[in-house]
Amino acid sequence: MELLKQRIAKEGIVLNNAVLKVDSFLNHQLDPQLMMQIGEEFAGRFKNEGITKVVTIESSGIAVALTTALFLKVPVVFARKKKSILMTDDVFHTQVFSYTKKESNDITISKKFLGSKEKILIVDDFLASGEAALGMAALVREAGSQVAGIGIVIEKSFQQGRQRLLDAGYRVESLVRIESFVNNQVVFL
Ligand code: G4P
């Protein structure tokens, strides 16, 4: 997605040749117009998959999942990293380890909002090690539903996430793929 590449080139800050900071439009401040364009792009790519629900994980996945679901005209549900005091229902849960943050989160989705026989599109902002996407896919499968695809805004292609998702049999659509960071500059694939 050319527009997204331009925004990354203009506003992205690479830290330690490892982490891309895009908090002016995706991870802290949000650009609503760009979020809509991203949602439209994901919806277009997955329009023939019969998606019945979009699943993401808090917090940065929520904006793009919402706009994607808006275009697909389906609901969106986000996995929680911390159990809400309001979450009294039965939940599906699994462990997700964040290599970037060096912490483990028990992610949960209420059984009320993840039924069986759904066709789920998983959406997230970054794909690095693939832990978050694999965790969400595990919840979907535990519910007895199908992962119809995985949509990623920014893929760090030099990490193993994409390969792990492909090996697990999932269709992966990334809007931007990053080959490497060189001298704290982004090299697109
Ligand atoms: P994964 O996302 O593929 O599972 O890999 P990893 O365990 O490395 O990622 C953990 C967290 O770090 C995720 O956010 C992920 O989006 C984020 N992350 C990974 N690489 C980058 C990067 O280069 N830039 C930025 N900005 N984030 C990165 P999270 O813990 O779910 O946080 P959030 O959604 O609450 O913001």
UniProtKB/TrEMBL annotation:
MF GO annotations: xanthine phosphoribosyltransferase activity
Q: What's one GO BP annotation on this UniProt entry? A: purine ribonucleoside salvage
Write down the EC number: 2.4.2.22
Q: Which residues form a coiled coil?
A: none
Task: Give the binding site residues for xanthine.
Answer: 20, 27, 156
Give the metabolic or biological pathway.
Purine metabolism; XMP biosynthesis via salvage pathway; XMP from xanthine: step 1/1
Q: Which family does it belong to?
A: Belongs to the purine/pyrimidine phosphoribosyltransferase family. Xpt subfamily.
The protein's role, per its UniProt record: Converts the preformed base xanthine, a product of nucleic acid breakdown, to xanthosine 5'-monophosphate (XMP), so it can be reused for RNA or DNA synthesis.
How is the quaternary structure described? Homodimer.
> Under what name is this protein listed?
Xanthine phosphoribosyltransferase
Organism encoding this protein: Anaerospora hongkongensis
Q: What is the lineage of its organism?
A: Bacteria, Bacillati, Bacillota, Negativicutes, Selenomonadales
